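Quick question, first post here. What does this chain look like in 3D?
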Amino acid sequence: MRRFLLLFLLMLGFSFVNAQNIKITLSGRIKDSHTKLPLSFVNVGLKSVKDSSFITGTVTDDQGFFKLEEMKSGSYLLIISFMGHQTKRQTVSIGQLTPFLDLGWIELQSEVKTLTEVVISGKTESLSSKMDKKTFNMADQLSQGGGSVLQAMKNLPGISTSSDGKIMLRGSDKVAVLIDGRQTALTGFGGQNGLDNIPASAIERIEIINNPSAKFDANGNAGIINIIYKQQKQEGWNGKIGLTTGLGAIWEKKENLPGIRPQYQGTPKINPSLSLNYRKNKLNTFMQADWLYTQTLNRNEFSTRIYDTAEVIRQQVKRNRNTSYATLKTGADWNPDDHNLFSFSGLFNREKIIDRGDIPYFNEDLSSRYRLWQFLEDEVKYTATATASYQHKFKQPGHLLNAGFNYTFHREDEQYFFTNIMPAFTGEDAFKLLSDERVADFNVDYVRPLKHGRVEAGMKFRNRTIPVNMQFFPGLNSPLDVNAGGWADYKETIPALYGNYVFESSKVELEAGLRMEYVKVSYDVNPNHPTYKSSGYDYTRPFPNLRFAYKLDDQNKLSVFYNRRVDRPNEVDIRIFPKYDEPEVIKVGNPGLRPQFTNSLELGYKTNWNKGSFYFAAYRRNTEGTITRIATQAPGSNLIYNVFQNAGHSSNTGGEMVAQQQMSPWLTLNLNGNIYQNKIDAFTVENLYPVPVIYTAKKDNLISGNLKLNALMKFPEFAELQLTGIYLAPDLVPQGRIASRFSMDMGFKKTLQKGKGELFLNGTDILNTLQIKKNIYGNGFQLISTDYYETQVFRLAYSYKF
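> Answer (accepted):
Ran it through. C-alpha cells below.
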C-alpha cells in the first residue's frame, strides 16, 4: 500500500513555485564634460541590444536627473542625445540583486568622439534572484486555501513539520518568523507561536529566506520565514469579502480507551474575512479583519510505556480544542510630497483557546485502570501592536532613509484545572498564569544605489520585558511541590549595527555584510524558589554573511553562501514554573540555558530552460551549545521531567532540490526533495529540577528528508486543480525517533463573476494517512506512541472583490 501511495505521489507533482521577477529602476545624472554643470531636457532612451527595438525613454529634469522605471533584467543600449553635444551610447546590464541601479554622473562631450561599446548581458531568473529567497503567493496554494498559515507552509519547498507541530527548515526548527518584516508576539520573538491560528486568507505571500543578510536580526539558524499581510493600493474604494467553512475529523481513526469522554468528530471550521482600502491623492488607508473559529481533535495519542522493571503502562492522551481567533489590522500611508512618506498602523488580536482532555492509565491488557486524569485549559491571549515609520526618498531613485518604531503588548491569561481520579481518592490541582510582554523596537536603515549594486547600513535597538506570575493551588496528594508557583521577571536589551554591500557585474555577484549585536538578558526569580536562583547572560558577537555567485552563462549560475547566526532561549524555555504536559510528564524551564551559535555554509546551483528550471543546494550547519529538551526521572518517582539543556555540538548536513516544468499549457509539475543528516555528539547534562539528575547520551545521527510533489492543472473557464503529496522520512527527535509520514492534499478554484468572485474547494490529508509514530528512550523507560490527531479537513470558500 505504501509503495502504491508513493508511486501515486510521484505521478502528481509538488507545490507551484511562484517566481516573481523584480522590476528595476535605472537612474543617473547628465552633465557637460567641460563646464561640469547639469544639463536639463536631455533625451535619454533605452533600446534592446538583441534587436535594437525601442524600450522606453525620458528627459532629464532641471538638475540633470533621469530615471527609467519598470525595467526587466537584461542587456540594453542606453542612448543620450542633446543639442550641441555628441550622442552618447553605452550598454548597461540590469540584474536582479537590487531594485535600483544608479549610473552616477554621465558626461556629454561637445565634440564628436568615437566610443567603444562593452556588452554586458543578463537574464531574468526563474526561481529567485539570489537563490536564498523563495516567494509564494497564497492565492496559488489551492490545496490550503481557507486553512491556517501553518497548514499552508507545510506544502512549501524545504519546509516540514516536527512531531510537536513546529515548522522546520531543512530539518531544523530554529526558524525566525516575521510578519511584514518584523518580529511580533503573534508568531513569537524568536519562536513560532500562533502560526496554526493565523488564517491563510489574511496573507498575501510567504517568503522563505535560507541565508539572511546582515540587515536581518541574527536569530534563527535555519533561516527566516516572512509572512506578508494583504494590503491593497488601488485608487478609490476597493476591498474583498470572503467566507470559508469546513469540516474535520469526519470519521474516527482509532477508538478511545474505555471509560473516557468522546473525542471530537465532525469538527466545524468557519473563517469570515473582510478587507477595505481607500486611496486618494496623498492618502492611503486600509483595514483588514479576520475571525477564525475551529473545533479540533488537537491530540489523540496512544502510548505504551515499558519500564526497566518490566512494568507496562498503556495510556491515551486525548485533547479536544475550541479556538476563536480574531484579528483587526488598520493603518494609513501619507505622502505629503514625492520625497517623504509617513506610515501608521495598528494591529489587535484576541485568541481564545479551551482544551478539554482525558488521559487514562491502564495495565497492559486493559483489564485494570490505574487512574484517569482529566483537564481543562482556559487560555486567552491579547496582542496589540502599534507601528510608525518614516521614509525619505532622495532625488536619486532607490536612495532611501527609513526610520521606524514598533511597540508590542502581549498578554497571556491562562487557567488550568486538573482532576486526578485514583482508586482511593480524587485530587484537584489548579494553576493561574498571567504574563505581560512589552517590546519596543526602534530602527534606522539607509540604502544607497551604486552603478553596479548598492550599500546598506542601519541600526536597531530593542527593549523587552516579560513579568510572569504563576499561582499554584495544589489538590489532594498533588505530585507537584507546593513551591511550584511564584513570580519571575525577564528583561532583554539588544542594540545592533549592520552594514551590507552588494555588487553585480556580467559574471559575478557579491554580497557581504556584518552585523554586530550586544545582548543582555537578566532573569530575576522568586528568592524562595527551591532550585533556581536569579541569573542571566550577555555577549557581544559579530554575525557576518557572504554570498558569491558566478554566472556560467545566461541559464546557469553557481553560488556560495556563508553566515553565522544565533538562537537565543525563549522566555518560556527558561521559565521556572513546572507545567503538566501529561499527568506523569512535567515540563519546566532552565534559567541556566544559554544561546546556541551556528555557522552555515551552502553551495547552490541553478539552471533554466524553456518553461522549466532546476535548483540544487548543498548545505552544512555546525552548532555549538545545541538547545534540546531532556527527559529524566527523579529518584523514587514515576514522574518524568522535560527540561531544556545545552547539549554541546551538533550538525545538519544535506541537499535540497527544486525542479519545475510546464508540461503543457494546462499542466505544471513541481518536485521538491530534501535529504539531510542530523548528528549530535555525545554529551552529559544535569537536570536540576526537582532534584539533580545526570543524563548521558551517546553520539547519535540519522539520515532523513522529505519529498513533495505537486501538479497544477488549468482548465477552461478559469478553473484550476492542484494535487499535492508530501512524504516525510523517519527523523530524530529528542531522545528518540519519529517514523515516516505521508499525506495528500487537493484544491480546486473557479473564477466567477468576470474575475471578481472566486470559489474554493479543498481537502487536507484526503487519504487520512497522516499520523505520528514515536519511539522515546529515557532513564529507566521506553515510550512507544502513535498520535491519531485530526489531519483530514475539507473546506469550501467564496470570496468577492469590489
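Confidence is low (pLDDT under 50) at residues 1-20, 112-127.
The chain has two domains: 24-108, 236-801.
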